[in-house]
From TrEMBL:
This is Helix-turn-helix transcriptional regulator. The lineage of its organism: Bacteria, Bacillati, Bacillota, Bacilli, Lactobacillales. The keyword DNA-binding applies. InterPro entries: Cro/C1-type_HTH (IPR001387), Lambda_DNA-bd_dom_sf (IPR010982). Keywords: DNA-binding.
Length: 70
């Protein structure tokens, strides 16, 4: 589980807009958001930077915080 969709939507970006910012396809962003693809560490870092957050916030959920809005 990750919070990419929440952060992307908070920015007002489409999947395509985020994909272009990090250098992947829209389909890749869709698969990551739906937990159907495990991105490389490099891509995780690019996503966090583009979304203005850090890896822990984007990909790690302390117990009880799953699904919280950014």
């Amino acid at each position: 589980m990750n919070r990419i969709r929440q952060f992307r939507q908070a920015q007002g970006w489409s999947q395509l807009a985020l994909a272009q910012r990090v250098g992947v396809t829209r389909q890749t962003v869709n698969m990551i958001e739906n937990n159907n693809y495990n991105p490389s560490l490099d891509l995780c870092i690019r996503l966090a930077q583009a979304l203005g957050t850090d890896l822990n916030t984007l990909f790690w959920f302390p117990e009880g915080l799953e699904g919280e809005e950014p």
